[in-house]
Amino acid sequence: MELQNSLVRTCGYCGRENEDSARACAGCGTQFEHPSTVPPKPQLKPRRRWPDLRLRYAVYPVLLVLFYFLSLGPVLYFFSKVTTTTVAGAGPGMTTSVSVEFSGWLAVIYYPAFTLYSSQWGDSSYGRYLQWWIERRQGKH
Known about the structure:
By secondary structure, the chain is α+β, with helices and mostly antiparallel strands. The protein has two domains: 8-41, no CATH class; 69-138, no CATH class. It is built from five helices and four strands; from the N terminus they run E-E-H-H-E-E-H-H-H. The strands form two sheets. Strands 1-2 form a two-stranded antiparallel sheet. The protein has a two-stranded antiparallel sheet with strand order 3-4. Helix 2 (72-79) runs parallel beside helix 5 (125-138). The protein is rod-shaped. 5% of the residues are buried.
């Protein structure tokens, strides 16, 4: 008995063994698919977990804190009462004071934002941002 080194292709329809170079089954005539016509299986990429974790544990909390502090402006606009008082002074000028009144729940919820506003950061961008909302409430804008 002689050993053959050629590959064998088995027909999926009748089960007959054919030569590897055959284009159709010698027994039933079923056409074989060529390796070039068979689409390759898509390779699944391993899931990259680190970018997802960075996004979830770093970006979302930063966005939440940013939203919290920036939401104080519109809240002051809709839920506060702004009173402007102008008093004639003893000298040539006048003194104007602006008071902002708001409910107690607002002071509790936005305590960190009010603390930031009354600190040295009150004259920074955040203070100007809140002042812009208060001036809008007064009707200057």
